[in-house]
Amino acid sequence: MSAGGDLLSAVLAVGGDPADLPFWEACRQGRFLLHRCGVCGQCYWPASRCVQHGARDMAWIEASGRGVLYTYTVLHHAYTPEMKGRTPYVVGVVKLEEGPFFHTNIVDCPPAALAVETPLEVVMAPHPSGMTLPMFRPRVEKSAPPEESAAAREGMS
């Protein structure tokens, strides 16, 4: 079976929608996509129809993969065997820069370090199902380059 067929099988096995297959294929490539209306620019997740313009001008676009933590919960019980030994873990709702909300795990930080409005960025995580799952972690703001020293400005070597 092709890699795309394997992915479709994995998506269907977890109750996913085949309409979202381009999203899951992009995740495997490390890219985060949203479905956008070509008329008004409104973005959606999962794949959808624009509430104003229907399905005729919808297309997948590369998204920023950035957003802010809208709400979250810390789970202290492993509800599935896969999560045993991984508690506590955080499930959150991310308000993406492009507008939609995305439900996901928040990773790479202790739960106590999180707060609503924490800036986040996507990180892709391989899953035993064969899917690649987009999760979010706190965004590290890149600092501005250090100012040049006076000696360098004056051309001293």
Label the structural class. alpha+beta
Distance between the termini: 63 Å
Helical amount among residues, as a percent range?
10-25%
Mean pLDDT: 87
Largest sheet strand order: 6-5-4-7-8
- Spans of at least 5 consecutive residues with low confidence: 148-157
Percent of sequence in beta strands? 25-35%
| SSE pattern, N- to C-terminal | HHEEEEEEEEH
Gross geometry: globular
The helix tally amounts to 3
Give an overview of the whole structure.
- By secondary structure, this protein is of the alpha+beta class.
- The chain contains three helices and eight strands; from the N terminus they run ααββββββββα.
- The strands form two sheets. It has a five-stranded antiparallel beta sheet. It has a three-stranded antiparallel beta sheet with strand order 2-1-3.
- The N and C termini lie far apart (63 Å).
In short, what is this structure?
With 157 residues, the chain is an alpha+beta fold. Helix content is 15%, strand content 32%. The strands form 2 sheets. A 5-stranded antiparallel sheet has the order 6-5-4-7-8.
Brief descriptors of the model:
157 residues; alpha+beta; globular
Draw up the topology in text.
Elements: H1 3-13, H2 21-28, E1 33-37, E2 43-44, E3 58-62, E4 66-75, E5 89-96, E6 101-106, E7 119-126, E8 132-138, H3 150-153
Antiparallel strand pairs: 1-2, 1-3, 4-5, 4-7, 5-6, 7-8
